[in-house]
């Protein structure tokens, strides 16, 4: 009897998760970029989590059960169903990725969550993301002013100078519908195009 693609994905995920559980004690949190965390392993930071494909929302539900704060950025898109009916649905902004707000002591609970493959980092260290970038994603996602950006990111480097997203840096690129502020999350190699008022942006060169 042949296994379905879904069954194979779950088998691979379970094997990966078991491997991570065994290695969990040997993986640490990176603190070099955040000196204040060097001695405080109870401080909570935002980390990117890599999940089994098409399991992002299920992982969020499992994390909620474990009282682990998580954030899955989404955007709205229109899908055409078999009956030719168009419907607007909400889908993950970064497929197979979501974010958790945890301390180093919470790592094992996250890795043991069904659907979680790993906490993203460099080598054997988990690397936290700036709070400002997560807040930028939160605000833009809630306001439905965000979408994935999959083209080559070429444009002027700018910084948001006003509002709750103040201080976030990105690239100003031109699209057919106008200009977009593109936020790049280098750790997971993902980009998001965000609607930002031009008056709220300043060239990075202005602060050089």
Q: Could you describe the 3D structure shown?
A:
- The chain contains 4 helices and 15 strands.
- It has helices at residues 5-23, 56-65, 107-111, 131-142; strands at residues 28-29, 45-51, 69-71, 74-80, 86-92, 97-102, 116-119, 121-122, 125-126, 146-148, 156-160, 169-175, 178-185, 190-194, 201-203.
- It is globular, with a radius of gyration of 19 Å.
- It is 22% helix and 34% strand.
- It folds into 2 domains: 5-129, Alpha-Beta Plaits (2-Layer Sandwich); 134-207, SH3 type barrels (Roll), CATH 2.30.30.
Total of domains: 2
- Rounded mean pLDDT score: 84
Strand order of the largest sheet: 10-14-13-12-11-15
Net shape: globular
CATH topology of the largest domain: Alpha-Beta Plaits
CATH architecture of the largest domain: 2-Layer Sandwich
What level of helicity do the residues show?
A: 10-25%
- Helix and strand content put the structural class at alpha+beta
**Poorly predicted ranges:** 19-27, 32-39
Major sheet size, sense and barrel closure:
6 strands, antiparallel
Topology as H/E string? HEEHEEEEHEEEHEEEEEE
Number of helical segments?
4
- CATH C-level class of the largest domain is Alpha Beta
Could you name the key traits of this structure?
208 residues; Alpha-Beta Plaits; 6-stranded antiparallel β-sheet; 4-stranded antiparallel β-sheet
Provide a brief overview of the structure:
Helices cover 22% and strands 34% of the residues. The chain has helices spanning 5-23, 56-65, 107-111, 131-142, and strands at residues 28-29, 45-51, 69-71, 74-80, 86-92, 97-102, 116-119, 121-122, 125-126, 146-148, 156-160, 169-175, 178-185, 190-194, 201-203. A six-stranded antiparallel beta sheet has the order 10-14-13-12-11-15, with helices on one face.
